[in-house]
Structures are given as structure tokens and as C-alpha cells.
């Protein structure tokens, strides 16, 4: 068994957030840091993204949001997954987390984003109800922005038509591919994951860079890179993760 070391380049995270802000032309970047920042370290990535201009942190569960609240006291944190229990709802309310309502119930006493299903077929309402006083955002999720332009445009139109009467609320639809490829999907904010982290794969066949590009430029890679930074460089100061890999 050999030990593999993965160096997380927080400088790449910062550069990618700044690049996204340039591309979005006024819309906000909301950094998706669920699942421990996709294994990159949620606290480290969140700090880098916020420092570069991201406005909101997006997680999947209430416990993920609570863990970040301890480190980022006043930052807006959006829990995108369903709230499982009344106890979770109470903890979310106490921590001032923002929740997503994807069924008929809209929680009271907490800031809520109502999710409309425009074609993803996973979570969301088929029709948008009249938003209550505690609703601060309207959202949906693109199903195939990386591979199906026609259906993506259909989703954008559906979302725009459904939310147009409520333009005073924050509207957010785009994921990374939507933000970079479809200007009409940007609305007020884009929830970006892969475009913040970047992706590079290396192997015997050589190196290849994949993922979305911002106006022809691929995102800088925050993970999956072997240590090469000089002592004291940003790369060598950033967080490292170690795992076993079979030879």
C-alpha cells in the first residue's frame, strides 16, 4: 500500500470565484460546499470563496449548515436538502440558516427559498404558490445544462414565466454549467460547485482537463493535483488530505 497526498489549492478556488463573478456580470456567486466541500474541506473552501466575493454558502443538510455557522457567524447559509425533523427545523431557526421548501409546507420563523420543479424531476413544486412573508428566494435546478441546450432553455423559460411576478425576491436557477453557458439562467445568483473547484484528471494516457469553461477558459484546479508548491507558497500552505491507494 502506498499513501497518496492531495493538496488543495485555495488560490485556485479564489481565482475561480472571481472569474465567475466576471462572467455573471452582476449576479451573485453562491458557493456550494456540501459533502465537506466535495471532499476539499468545507471550512477552508468556504473561507476562500467568501474572501473572493461569494455571497452565500450552500449545503445539503442542517448539520452541515450548523458546522459552518460555528466558523462563519454572519454569513448566509442555505440548506438545499429537505429538513428531516422538527428538531432540525428548530436548530436551523436558532442558527439563522435559510431553508428550501420543495413541498406544500413552508416553515415559519425562518428564511425560506421556494423550489419549483421546472424539469429536474427530483425536488420541487409543480406550481408556485403565493410566497409568504418569510420567503426570500425562488429557485429551481437545471437538469442537463452541460449536455442538452434545448431542454435547458425550456427550463429557463418556465422558471422566468413562473417567477416574473415576484422579481422582488432573489431568483436563482443556474448551476455551474448553466451559469457559464446560458446567460438567461443567471437571474440574481448562481449556485456553483464544480466551476469553483475545477477538475483535472491525470493518468498513464497523459493529462486532460475537463469541466466547464468560462468563455473558453477552463477553471483553475483546486483538487486532484500532486504537491508541487514551494515551501511557503499558497499551494503548500493550503489544506491537504491523505488517503490510502492500492498499487
Summary tags:
22% strand; TIM Barrel; globular; 9 helices; two-stranded antiparallel ribbon; alpha/beta; 12 strands
Give a written overview of the molecule.
There is one protein chain. The protein is of the alpha/beta class. It has one domain (11-196): TIM Barrel, CATH 3.20.20.10. Helix content is 32%, strand content 22%. The strands form 3 sheets. Strands 2-3-4-5-6-7-8-9 form an 8-stranded parallel beta barrel, surrounded by 4 helices. Strand 8, helix 7 (176-181) and strand 9 form a beta-alpha-beta unit. Helix 1 packs across helix 3 and helix 4 (62-71) runs parallel beside helix 5 (86-94). Residues 201-218 and 223-247 have low confidence and may be disordered.
Could you give a short description of this structure?
This protein is α/β, with parallel strands linked by helices and 247 residues long.
